[in-house]
Amino acid sequence: MAHVNDNIKAYKGFRSITLMCLAVLYAPLLIVTIYSFNASQSITNWEGISLRWYADVFTGPESEKFKVAAFNSFTIAIIAATASTTIATLAATAMVRGGNFKLRTVSFGLISLPLMVPEIVTAVATLIFFNAIGFTRGYMTILVAHIAFCIPFAYLPISARMQGIEDSFEQAAMDLYATKRQAFTKILMPLMAPGIISGFLLAFIVSLDDFIITNFVKGAGVETLPTAIFGSVKQGIKPNIMAISTMLLSVSIVMVTISYFVSKSDNTK
Amino acid sequence: MAAGAASGGSARADTYKDARGWLLLPSWAVLGIFVLGPVCMMLIYSFLTKEFRGGVIWEPSLAAYDQFFFDRGLFGDEPPKLEWTYITIFWRSIWQAGAATLLSLLIGFPTAYFIATRPENVRPVWVFLITIPYWVNLLIRTVSMKFLLRDQGPLNDFLIGTGLIDSPIHIVNTNFAVQLGLFYSYLPFMVLPVYAAVERYNFSLSEAAADLYASKWTTLRRIVLPAVKPGVVAGCILVFVPSMGSFLAPDLLGGAKNFMIGSLIEEQFKGNAGNWPFGAAASMILLTMVLIILMFSARQQAKTDKAGG
Q1: CA–CA min distance A120, chain B (Å)
Q2: What pLDDT, in 10s, does the model give residues A23-76?
Q3: Which residue from A minimizes the CA distance to B204?
Q4: Chain A contact for B161 (CB, 8 A cutoff)
Q5: In chain B, pLDDT over 90 holds for what percent of residues?
Q6: Is A254 exposed, middle or buried (0-12, 13-18, 19+ CB in 10 A)?
Q7: Which of A198, A216, A269, B106 is the most exposed place for a label (fewest CB within 10 A)?
Q8: Does B283 contact A113 at a Cβ distance shorter than 8 Å?
Q9: Do residue B114 and residue A14 have CB atoms under 8 angstroms apart?
């Protein structure tokens, strides 16, 4: 394409709007991070830097609640991300390497269903479902719900990756008498690793962050970090909530950053 | 690579054709049983009779939908009038989601355009910067927003400190706070599709317009915008749909006066005051609206694909 003069492309003010947009996106997170280090008992006054609210999260009066919630959140996120990534990888193999078939569109629709249905509707439906089959709400119901709605988040990066890998690698292996199973495990899976890792991390974050569905299916007494935070925030924002939020948001940002760099790496060359 | 990509486009690779059924089985089973099944179950529940302490009695009834649309007086014996309470809540949700979508478009379009016109190697970095906050817990983001905007919050402190205002601006518990919260929740959904569309846009067209003495804004309005319209429509839908059914932003930033569908539905399933069939019916109505919007947009997309060849 002929090079187009930048003056024709550029619009005055668009740069400022972009920077303002980033400011709006990051300001609340930065402010909460800063105030989580506030030494003051009140959330309004600034009294110097301190780690007391971080200590409070681990040893304070609410620490027991947070510990249990964190344990629930992280174990659910790990199991749900593992299960949904496995399911999504198998589905992606069928969708990308399975030729054309009648139910392809329907399968894709089913996989993206959790993205199309509003979250609150999924939450209501799941609650009703567990109620109807007489399943007591608790840890298991949260886990099952998370596995289901994490599938599309794992599926998208995985199938995108698989579409980017030519099937000639596997064809070459099979020309050399590798079985289909060997071509899958020895050739396709290693090449797929970045996509699978990035899908796993996204599913992990989505599970760790979910509030609405968890809130509906958790039942009495079982809390995850988001539901514990929500319960606490209902009585007003407290400094220890800001500390725990800062920790949780750091986990998400680190994971997304890893996912970004892993998915960018190209091991097919 | 180019040849591989080209062959991938027409004939789909079918290495694992024989195992297809087994490979798809887990996803069909999990999503069928735990997402599609529950939605069907919800449809059934919306036609059942409510039990007073939550849950349902298995007796078919239209009471939930009747309560949604008609007012039959306190004892249910008056001639039905149109019930406005819930229609108003739905209307407010649509309005709020629309305003949030417009806000996202006004900020998101220039942002997406700006990013798409950066040198190719730095574009992913800009996109990454826009998407990071999306991956931070929505609850934490909404709480942070509330913390920032509250009457004694850092924003008001800052504005009073600089002497711009004398007394705090009340933002929390207004419609605007909810719109801002929704904008904050879903902005990347606007930026990403618009960005993808602008990136594919052929800027020679802008150059041709400039050669023919079109002003820059005329070029934007009459050449760029029509060309990237599919991306803009996709972005608007991706922001509008989740905004309409959102719960956290209206609940934490809006207060009781700015009730939206999400809170109405949630209320039916909390504690003992709830009405499950009514909550299921409200969810069905919301879902129907969303599916209509998605079907409409899929149709539009198919039309543009056809027109584009």
Answers
A1: 7
A2: 989 999 998 899 889 888 777 777 778 888 888 888 888 888 899 999 999 999
A3: A4
A4: no
A5: 34
A6: exposed
A7: A269
A8: no
A9: yes
- CB burial class (10 A; 0-12, 13-18, 19+) of residue B215? exposed
pLDDT tens-place string over residues A209-260: 899 999 999 988 899 999 999 988 888 888 888 899 999 899 989 988 888 8
| CB-closest option in B34, B133, B187 to A29 | B133
How far apart CA B67 and CA B282 sit, in angstroms, is 10
Contact B136 A21 (CB under 8 A): no
Give the A:B interface size as CB pairs under 8 Å: 292
What is the interface pTM, i.e. ipTM, of the complex? Answer: 0.86
Ordered alpha helix ranges (H), chain A:
6-9, 14-35, 52-59, 63-97, 104-111, 113-116, 119-132, 139-164, 168-175, 180-182, 189-209, 212-217, 225-233, 239-264
Q: Nearest by CB to B294, from A9, A91, A116: name it.
A: A116
Q: How far apart are CA A146 and CA B107, in angstroms?
A: 33
Nearest Cα to Cα of residue A113 among B292, B44, B34, B303:
B34
Q: Which two tokens stand for residue B164?
A: 């711009």
Q: A121 and chain B: CB distance < 8 Å anywhere?
A: yes
At A131-158, the pLDDT tens digits run: 899 888 889 999 999 999 999 999 988 9
> What's the distance, Cα to Cα, between the start and end of chain B in Å?
24
DSSP B81: E
Q: Would the CB atoms of B242 and A118 count as touching at under 8 Å?
A: yes
Q: Which residue is it, tokens 């079907």? A: B295
Residues of B in contact with A137 (CB under 8 A): none
* Residue A163 in contact with partner chain B when CB distance is under 8 A: yes
For residue B197, what are its two tokens? 């569309």
> Which ranges of B212-275 does DSSP label H, i.e. alpha helix?
216-219, 225-244, 248-249, 261-269
Give contacts of B244 with chain A, Cβ < 8 Å.
118
